[in-house]
Amino acid sequence: MSPDVAQEIEKLREAIRYHEHRYYVLNDPEISDAEFDRLMRRLQELERAHPELVTPDSPTQRVGGAPAEEFPKVRHSTPMMSLDNTYSVEELKDFDRRVRELSGRSRVDYVGELKLDGLSIALHYEDGRLVRGLTRGDGVTGEDVTGNVKTIRSVPLRVEPARLAAWGNPKRFEVRGEVIMPRKAFEKLNAQREAAGEPKFANPRNSAAGTLRQLDPRIVAERQLDTYIYQAIVNGRPPLEEHWQVLDSLAAIGFKVNPHRRLCRRFEELIDYIREWESKRDRLDYEIDGIVVKVNDTRLWEKLGATAKSPRWAVAYKYPARQATTVVKNIRAQVGRTGILTPVADLEPVDVGGVTVSHATLHNMDEIERLGVRVGDTVLVQRAGEVIPQVVKVVKHSPQGREFRMPKACPVCGGEVFRAAGEVAYRCVNAACPAKLKESLLHFAGRRAMDIDGLGEALVDQLVDKGLVKDVADLYQLTEEQLEGLERMGKKSAMNLQREIENSKQAELARLIYAIGIPFVGERTAQILADHFGSLDRLMGASAEELEAVPEIGPKTAAGIVRFFHEPRNRRVIEKLRRAGLRFEQPPAARRGARPLAGMQFVLTGTLPTYSRDEAKKLIEEAGGRVTGSVSKRTNYVVVGSDPGSKLEKARELGIKTIDEAELVKLAGKTAPVNA
Ligand code: IVH
User: Fold this and answer.
1) Is the CB of 297 under 6 A from ligand 1?
2) Residue limits of CATH 1.10.287.610 in the chain
């Protein structure tokens, strides 16, 4: 191997680290995403060719490793304490008085920080490299979630040794901070979960906590967690005499430090800071539930000490919950962009923390039942961030209370409303329902669906608003003149777009099945259906029983597919797509025959007699199957060797079929193990 390669790799890593910091820590990128991807791909390429040069702190290694079985427990270097809460200026004054008494000073500087509503995390670095990430746990012992923490792009996997000079160049150090999920990421995740029929997270904090405790780092990587670091520990204590300097130095070293911190030399400044953020908190892209006040002089920290639970040098000022009571005037179903009908309460308008609230979401029918809410009831409503207000509980039932029932027909288009077995959500099955048309078009044109480059939100908005497109099939009737007439559309881009639309007619069947938006049919399921049925017509004609007989297709998905094709509006769109000349057939060569395990999920446990784990994995994957780390309802087979682990028990518990190596080999269409 030439030294040039090693050098190029190191250069690429440096550049990627630099740009990751610009993008994820400073929110100030210097290069485009495409350029960044290019650097990353080049590094991946070189590392693939020279696996001996891969290091654990390489930017390519953020999402590495197999799913964990569980998180090992690790003792914290010093306990991760919580904070005492205060709820009024009076209580905060008491805190200040105590600090001054105990420290023997007449005046103390404080640092005000936002109290981020996430979960705390401890990151350990050795020789500048991230070696461990721990959750708070019970404060004394945390869980080792290193693999997950590494996927958070604002967490440096490596820090420049020269930058540690201000801290006395420690070989080891620890930082602590908060892991949060930005509101946007939270809303996106919940929308996805809703569309997939999975339970939604109640708030960004639960969502961040649930994500960090995910066993599969690949899932964590998709969820856009973020961090803010607010503490450094070197040799058991803060590395500098002022907390304010510690925060600055953390930022200089490359950590993401919240910019909205303030050094307050007078108590009144602290109050101003608290008031200021109480009114500005809604503008943040993440949730805060108060302010943290810390003594700036870290030498006083030791002197002030701690109670059993919390330090005496810091306190939280909690913002009041923004709640109010009011009366439910009506409950109606609102159709969202994904076609899900959400019950919404129309309220007697009421002021909640300075904002007039006249609607609140009731989420779904289960929630209505849980709350026991009826029209006419007096309820407690709550506002958090900019999200739509929620009903917390019924305060008083009205004797004339009227129950809400989900309508049988979509209030927007009149399409059939259906609820899949075991699902909470009700949906409108009409793919061309105007309520979800824009979303359906974006999905249809998406990169993983029909891949119509250039058909983004701005264009979709215009096409729908101008009435040019009423369903996805209308895209194929658009003329160049029509496209040219749209805003920000030159002749050339109109031509390009039309060519893109034309080319998409050649998309493979699996893409088309995915693109038309059948409930619960994601990319993978679409591939399985294309492989199995080979044509859209055969899929359309399949009964629920036939569908359920296909590996990985459960009753819920089967019912979703049947309903979808049963809806006359959908069949009309499909006929239009046929006339436009889209590919409804899959060429036989691409079909399942050569891939006997297509669509099947396997879990391996124990030692197999002849195959190594990697060989078995390869065998399964080459036959079209997939190997996952843990047993779930979706697992088709658990392959059991000698000394099997807890996965075997889990398989029995869930009633998943177990097979041995010989059976696996047969299923994969081979006659005997390759090296037997
Ligand atoms: S300092 C020993 N600073 O609030 C004090 N905590 O109950 C260590 N939190 O567990 C915490 N933002 O998860 C600190 N700027 C901030 C914070 C913060 C949020 C959380 C943290 C802690 C809890 C305190």
Assistant:
1) no
2) 3-54
